[in-house]
UniProtKB/TrEMBL annotation:
Signal peptide: none annotated. CDD domains: ABC_Carb_Monos_I. It comes from Sinorhizobium mexicanum. PANTHER family: CARBOHYDRATE TRANSPORT ATP-BINDING PROTEIN MG119-RELATED (PTHR43790), SUGAR ABC TRANSPORTER ATP-BINDING PROTEIN (PTHR43790:SF8). This is Sugar ABC transporter ATP-binding protein. InterPro entries: AAA+_ATPase (IPR003593), ABC_carbohydrate_import_ATPase (IPR050107), ABC_transporter-like_ATP-bd (IPR003439), P-loop_NTPase (IPR027417). Keywords: ATP-binding, Nucleotide-binding. PROSITE patterns: ABC_TRANSPORTER_2. GO terms for molecular function: ATP binding; ATP hydrolysis activity.
Amino acid sequence: MTRDIQSAPAKGEPVLRLRGISKNFGAVSALTDIELDVNGGEVVALVGDNGAGKSTLVKILAGVHQPSAGTIEFCGEGVTLDNPAKALGLGIATVFQDLALCENLDVVANLFLGHELAPWQLDEVAMEVRAWTLLRELAARIPSVRQPIASLSGGQRQTVAIARSLLLDPKLIMLDEPTAALGVAQTAEVLNLIERVRDRGLGVIIISHNMEDVRAVADRIVVLRLGRNNGVFLPDASNHDLVTAITGATENAVSRRLDRKTGLANEQSGGAA
Ligand SMILES: Nc1ncnc2c1ncn2[C@@H]1O[C@H](COP(=O)(O)OP(=O)(O)OP(=O)(O)O)[C@@H](O)[C@H]1O
C-alpha cells in the first residue's frame, strides 16, 4: 500500500541496529559478526573493496538473503526479513544499481509500477498530480513526468528510482552506487537529492566506491573489509586512514599515489605563495 512520505522517523532516533550479523555461502564467509547502526536523518556510507561484503549486507536488509547468524532491530524491534516484500512492508527500501526502470514507460508509469493496490492506481490524473508533487518536494529536475525513461539522463533516472522507493514511505533507504557512471553535474544533483531524503528524517545507507561523494554526503563512513567491520569514520577522516581501513595495508599503491598528489599540490601552492 502507498502511504504519504511525510511520516518518517524522528531525526536521531535509531532506525537500524545490526549485531553479530554473519552470512555464509557454503564454505565462503561473506560476512562475519557485522555491527551497523543507522539513525533517522543520517546518511551512513558503506565502503569497502570488491568482495568486502557490502552487497551481501544490503541484500540481507532487502530480504533477499537470510543471515546465518545475528540480530536485526528495525525501529526498536527485532525483525526477520524473510523476503523482499517483508522488508519493503516494514519500511526498508532498496534502490539497486540497475534501477529496474522500464525504458519505454514514462515517469508517472514508472513511479507507480507495482503499486497496484493503491486506490488511485488507475486514475491517471491523480497519479500525475502525485508524481509532480513528489518530485517537487524533492526539488527533482525532471522536465516532464510524461517523458519516457529512455529520454532521461542518468541522474534523472536515479531520481525517478529514488522517488519511486519513497512512495512506499520507507524509514530506511539503501542506495547501491547511486552516482556510478554519472557526470559531475548529475552527481551533484543526486547528492542533493540524498540530502533532501535525509532531511525528511529517513535513515540512508549509501554504497559507494567514490570517496569524494561519500565525504560530500555521509555523516558516518562504515568500512567493511573481508566481510568484517574495519572502522567507523567521520567524513573529515584522512584519505590515508580510510584507504588503510579499506585495504588493510598502511603502505599501499593507493595511499602512496594520494600522498604523491598531496605532496605535489603542497609544493605547487608553496611555490605560488
Ligand atoms: N550468492 C553467493 N554465493 C556465493 N558467494 C557469494 C555470493 N554472493 C556473494 N558471495 C561472496 O561473498 C563475498 C562478498 O561479496 P559481496 O558481493 O557482498 O561484496 P561487495 O563488497 O559488494 O563487492 P563489490 O564491491 O565487488 O560489489 C565475496 O567473496 C563473494 O564472492
